[in-house]
Design brief:
The protein is of the alpha/beta class. It contains twelve helices and eleven strands. Helix 9 links the parallel strand 9 and strand 10.
């Protein structure tokens, strides 16, 4: 594991940009960016367009390691170039931004009010490829839709099992058991989640740490004991559908938690904007998210 990247995540201020929209969410991300579905024909053109959007964000003068600690990439982004260099290499060498890779293959069908991850039979090979390309860590997402103990435990136990596999490959896992912000039992689900997280954190080896990506909680400071756990490098927050303003306001009240926003980061960006307009909009977003992460 790259020590300079580890030190940056551990010691510097800023947030982690989530630029890892997958095939299923790409059309929506492009539509929000001002590109309708009739503007592209097939997956190849669609992924070219989303890569162009991500490249525009990453190469912007508003996007730099002074406020952005890391960036989570989609696998296809990792395999492509930005400004003539591999995406992960560009992020670290040019922007001083730590690269992460989304490794999950999507969600299984809901069971007990939750969705675990689909099987990842090629995970070891993907991790080896990521290490070779200069990636520091990974991210994988499950979803909790209701306060059901069996469902929550299934999500968290799977996340940590896979997380240990990722640690063994020399990468830092971001464990993401998202609680649906629209859940009627969100606060109760978060209580079950915290208990499951603490139980599993105690099984991580003494010389290892993980990162956690969690939904902004209903109770301020709710995850303080998780943030303070010696097996936790950093706890980051997902926006989960909240607007940037609400995400930032909620995050400001969570001491020690930093942002890892996707939709809230790209909100207001448009393919139709001039570079000056785009960079100015992105600068405001990055600035506000970095400030909310500094509490």
């Amino acid at each position: 594991m790259n020590q300079d990247m580890l030190d940056k995540i551990n010691n510097e201020s800023g947030f982690i940009a989530a630029l890892d929209q997958s095939g299923g969410s790409t059309p929506k991300a492009l539509k929000l960016y001002g590109i309708e579905e009739d503007a592209f024909d097939g997956d190849e053109e669609m992924f070219d367009l989303i890569h162009a959007m991500r490249s525009r964000i990453v190469t912007s003068p508003s996007f730099h390691g002074d406020r952005v600690l890391g960036a989570i990439l989609f696998e296809m982004t990792m395999d492509r170039d930005i400004d003539g260099a591999g995406s992960a290499e560009y992020l670290w060498n040019t922007k001083n931004v730590v690269p992460f890779l989304k490794v999950d293959k999507g969600l299984a069908d809901e069971e007990n009010g939750a969705q675990i991850m689909k099987p990842m039979p090629d995970l070891d090979a993907l991790c080896a490829r990521a290490v070779a390309k200069g990636v520091f860590g990974t991210k994988m997402r499950s979803v909790i839709n209701e306060a059901n103990g069996a469902g929550v435990d299934a999500v968290v136990d799977q996340q940590f099992e896979v997380g240990k596999q990722i640690l063994a490959a020399g990468l830092m896992p971001i464990i993401e058991p998202e609680v649906n912000i629209n859940s009627a039992t969100k606060a109760e689900a978060e209580a079950l989640l915290k208990a499951a997280l603490l139980r599993n954190l105690d099984t991580v080896a003494d010389d290892q740490q993980v990162m956690l990506k969690l939904t902004l909680p209903e109770t301020d400071g709710f995850y303080a004991d998780v943030i303070a756990h010696p097996r936790v490098l950093k706890v980051v927050a997902l926006s989960g559908g909240y607007s940037r303003q609400e995400s930032n306001e909620r995050l400001t009240r969570q001491t020690g938690m930093i942002a890892s926003f996707s939709r809230a980061l790209t909100e207001g960006l448009s393919a139709q904007q001039s570079d000056d307009e785009f960079n100015s909009m992105l600068d405001g977003a990055v600035g506000s998210i970095a400030a909310a992460s500094a509490t």
